[in-house]
Amino acid sequence: MGISVEGANKRFGDFQALKDVSIEVPTGSLTALLGPSGSGKSTLLRAIAGLEALDSGEVLIDGQDVGRKPVQKREVGFVFQHYAAFKHMTVYENVGFGLKIRKWDKRKISARVHELLDLVQLPGLADRYPSQLSGGQRQRMALARALAVQPQVLLLDEPFGALDAKVRKDLRTWLRNLHDEMHVTTIFVTHDQEEAMDVAGQLVVMNEGRVEQSGSADELYDHPANEFVMSFVGEVNQLGEHFVRPHDMEIVLDSDDRTKEGLVQRIVTLGFEVRVELLLSDGTEVWAQLTRAELQRLELREGQIAYLRPAQAKSFNGSGAFAAV
Amino acid sequence: MTANPASRWTLRILGLGYILLLLLIPLGFIFYKTFEHGIAPPLDAITSPDGLHALKLTLLTVAIAVPLNTVFGIGCALLLVRHRFRGNFLIDAAINLPFAISPIVIGLSLFLLYGTTGWFEPALAEAGIKILFSVPGMVLACIFVSLPFVVRETVPVLQEIGTEQEQAASTLGANAWQTFWRVTLPAIRWGVAYGVVLTTARVLGEFGAVSVVSGSISGQTQTLPLFVEKQYENFNLPGAFGASVLLALLALMTLLAMNLLKRKEDA
């Protein structure tokens, strides 16, 4: 069940949340909507679900315009950042909610709920209340609840945003595996580029209500369409009009016509990775990412002069094409 | 907050003393006075035909006013919290009027509308409906004075639960009606219950507005508070005290019922 959005516009008072947004999500894919807060990614997701009405534009699910369909009839599974658990219901009642609404037979509901609790690895917690679960467990319960009704598409709004770092990493691996098993078309919203690249096959980068670029993680990282995408999907240094990734900044001890002189201000060792901060002669501050071995070979010290040789520098003048320096 | 033991004890004694002196001792005294000469005199007064009629009428006003104000209160709270619109604040302010206005004034306003020279009188007289000095007028007065409680108790709870649970229910296929019964109402039930208890207590005890519109005719338009006053005026102290204790017990029972329900649920 592919999803496509065409020419979507949405305004909240003076704030234009979506500006002529079009996206294409292939059937069975796992797509991330990535962008900073206020970029319109959640609004777009909520518009697909029918929780928000567009001012103009179309939402198509499986080729059908669902614009006039109310949220109840869109058959989407939606997972909220703060779980939206029904607090007065047990885990069992939460997961079975949609089935009860659909007037399923009690025995069928029981079978389906237990099947889903196994799937989200919460067997044995059926009689607990949401307040007795951890954040990660609550979110898995919410996911089971959304999946119970066999939705055409699954929409996740910053699903791991309220969880701590460790649980977050576990859950995203788990989500990816779950998607590989279920193959339900899934869109998830995040502001964390690492999370998006880790989980999703396709990324849509949004900024200020517009789609900046969409593609695979490699495409976005290696061929960013503009400055925003380049700086959002990875670390970046700006050298005049050029942008260079910190791992593409080679440090050498001898100058030539392609190097820039810099003062080593600080050396920070972060495990395997070493971060070298330099001040260039024109006053620009940049940093280079080195390995420990490279650092030892160069015998760099804070306060010394070193030379930078940027590789893979990109500039986005006009056409957005990039060029090596 | 950490306070030293001396100030903590001073605060405790002050708080307890205040409640004791102004609340518990006067109430306790009523109980004492009621049963001073045994249970027979107050019991006789309450079980007299007028006493029983007053009790029945009081329970009738509760049975009509409380459900109406509960339904209206929940609806109004939903309107105020979930459907923001211009002029919302006017409704919000108007809801508080019964709190701000003296019940006597409320009674008088009903008098002006439904009295012999009132706006609605000709039409009502033609239809043969009597509002003043009869039960409908008393129920109207009770609804008026107890109108804000359910709204005021429900609004903050609705704001606190937010809209995400309701949205989740709608993505799972629930229509507005199903969402209300299965998600919203269970989530706000204790706010509503508290509002219902307060409404009940207020309707049980309402004196001022009811006294103006009822005419306080023994055996006809006398609720328990009016009965208490009449007995007191006629120097029938056992009767006055007996009915007072009955009123107090009725109010305590509603409070107790809510606490029991809540405890049962929490267990």
Report how far the terminal alpha carbons of chain B are from each other: 30 Å
Query: Which outline of chain A best applies?
Result: elongated
Total helical segments of chain A: 9
Q: Class by helix and strand content of chain B?
A: mainly alpha
Q: Outline of chain B, from the CA principal axes? A: globular
Decide which structural class fits the backbone of chain A.
alpha+beta
Tell me the helix content of chain A: 25-40%
- Kindly state the mean pLDDT of chain A as a whole number? 91
Largest sheet of chain B: none
Please tally the helical runs of chain B, counting DSSP H or I stretches of 4 or more residues.
14
Summarize the structure.
The complex is a heterodimer of chains A (325) and B (267). With 325 residues, chain A is of the alpha+beta class.
Give an overview in words.
The complex is a heterodimer of chains A (325) and B (267). With 325 residues, chain A is α+β, with helices and mostly antiparallel strands. Chain A contains nine helices and 17 strands. In chain A, the strands form four sheets. Chain A has a six-stranded mixed β-sheet, sandwiched between helices. Chain A has a five-stranded antiparallel β-sheet with strand order 13-17-14-15-16. The longest helix of chain A is centred in the middle third of the chain and has 18 residues. Chain B has 14 helices and no strands. Chain B folds into two domains: 34 residues; 228 residues, MetI-like fold (Orthogonal Bundle). Chain B has 267 residues and is mainly α. At the A-B interface, β6, α2 and α4 of A face α10 and α11 of B.
